[in-house]
Design a protein that fits this description.
Pfam families: ABC_tran. This protein has 332 residues and is an alpha+beta fold. The protein contains nine helices and 18 strands. It folds into two domains: 234 residues, Rossmann fold, CATH 3.40.50; 87 residues, Nucleic acid-binding proteins (OB fold (Dihydrolipoamide Acetyltransferase, E2P)). The strands form four sheets. Strands 6-7-8-3-9-10 form a six-stranded mixed beta sheet, sandwiched between helices. The two termini are 43 Å apart. Bound molecules: adenosine-5'-diphosphate (ADP) and magnesium ion.
Amino acid sequence: MIKTSLLKANAVSKLYPGERTTGVKNVTLDIKPGEITAVIGASGSGKSTLLKLFFGLISPDKGEIRFKGDRVWGPEEKLIPGHDEMKMVTQHTDDLNLFAKVWDNVATLLPNTDLKAKKEKTDNVLKQLNMTHLATRQVVDLSGGEKQRVAIARAMVTQPTVLLLDEPFNQVDTSFREALQQDIRQVVKDTGLTVVMVSHDPAEVLSMADELVVIKDGEILEKGQPRNLYKQPGHLYTAQLLANCNVLTSKQAKLLGVTSKKETIAIYTDYIDITKSWVGKAWEVKQVMFKGFFEELLVQQDNITVRALNKEQGKYKEGDKVNLKAWGYLEY
Ligand code: ADP
Ligand code: MG
């Protein structure tokens, strides 16, 4: 028996004409069930377009989207746009009833034919998303992050097979964001929900994704597990999206002890050992930027500026002479 995929893009293109043709170009992507697939790309790289294609909010020019083997209908072919077994949340999802309670905002998506199931399912999703304490609050009184939780609870309560998330955590402050990300990961583990999310935030995709897909100018550049893509990005674009990195010529990289025949060298800011220097030609610390549990040093030599991560707080100050040695690098 041939195993059909849950959700698949087959050579899908959707092009927007203009000075530069943009959109999504010839994308083939098989979404793994019960996992979080995250798509990362620069702004304008086609992330939202790809998600809308999956959901059926726009139709491909070429190729097709298939859900459990059946074609996903576009808006021209379907009265209510969007696939019935999928739900999508964006940062603009704003169909909440502000003056109703959180619980009612979530429960209202379920039918009244089985009130017991309605109550159970609503209570359950609020519990899964750690928002039981918000149940009786009016939405109008919630913070941006809490409202976003309600939007996600509404998407989850009908138990869709696939949840599509388009940068849904953008408006949520950092501490809330991480908790929400953890809760969604837990739901995926516990329920087998399939998630496709798009984002430009490396911290978000690296910690959330089982499978990470890199999109550039509408095309898939590479994909893999977050750890592997971070450590061994096949393209400089990926390295720059996922990590804080210095991009140097191989001649410049020599100053950090790197010998390479390749043209371009990428060195992550945390791949550099810094030591104090008293002799000869050295780098000079131009700026010390406090980042919380580490500092980022802006270090210069002969018009070359390098950023290096320093965990020994307060060890260096502006004007100090230092030696830099890269213990790891990527070559392109
Ligand atoms: P991302 O979500 O990665 O920022 P989008 O998928 O929103 O990218 O957009 C990809 C490109 O397509 C952008 O250059 C955008 O300006 C263009 N685009 C998106 N939607 C439309 C549209 N409806 N009409 C014309 N151009 C569009
Ligand atoms: Mg977008």
